[in-house]
Amino acid sequence: MACTDTQGYSVMSWKGYKPTQFALDVIEESEEHVKKIAGVGLQSVVAGSPVMDGAYRGNHRISINEEDHTFDENIKDLGGQSTIAKESAKIVRFKLGDKLYIQNNAPYAIRLENGWSDQAPNGVYSIAFMNMRNVK
User: Fold this and answer.
1) How many angstroms separate the CA atoms of 95 and 73, rounded?
2) Interval 36-89: pLDDT, tens
3) What was the pLDDT predicted at 1?
4) How far is the CA of 37 from the CAs of 3, 28, 71, 94, in angstroms?
5) Which of 110, 86, 113, 90 is nearest to 100 (CA)?
6) CA 97 remoteness from chain centre
7) Three-state SS string across the chain, please?
8) What is the C-alpha to C-alpha distance for residues 50 and 19, in angstroms, rounded to an integer?
9) C or N: which end of the chain has fewer Cβ atoms within 10 Å?
């Protein structure tokens, strides 16, 4: 809608849904979608982890903007709930433009990804990636 300012020049005014609000909504919805995808990825790698003593399952890591190269053989999670809770808390900090990493640095992680375990003959992360691609 055209209006004039105090000097008589035409100016635009917006009623209703403003473009700036639209842009903010796009950012917010995009962030939420990435968080949803990351959550599916985390749940997939934890649920798909072969379990002997729980060390592999307990060492899935979420990090933002830098890789986390840690592995602690003393962190064990047989059921996976603790790992999901701990790492999900990191996902909520994601902002559009960040890099989000999901990784496991167990010394045998690559072997597991290549079918070393009968519990995960098709790997863990490759299956999680396929699940993440299907998130709507």
Assistant:
1) 31
2) 999 999 999 999 999 999 999 999 999 999 999 999 999 999 999 999 999 999
3) 47
4) 45, 14, 24, 12
5) 90
6) 13
7) CEEECCCCCEEECCCCCCHHHHHHHHHHHHHHHHHHHHHHHHHHHHHCCCCCCCHHHHCEEEEECCCCCCCCCCCCCCCCHHHHHHHHHHHCCCCCCCCEEEEECCCCHHHHHCCCCCCCCCCCHHHHHHHHHCCC
8) 49
9) C
Ramachandran class of 88: left when φ > 0, alpha when ψ lies in -120 to 50, beta otherwise: alpha
Tokens of 26: 């796009």
Which tokens go with 105? 């640095």
DSSP structural state of residue 104: E
* Global pTM value: 0.86
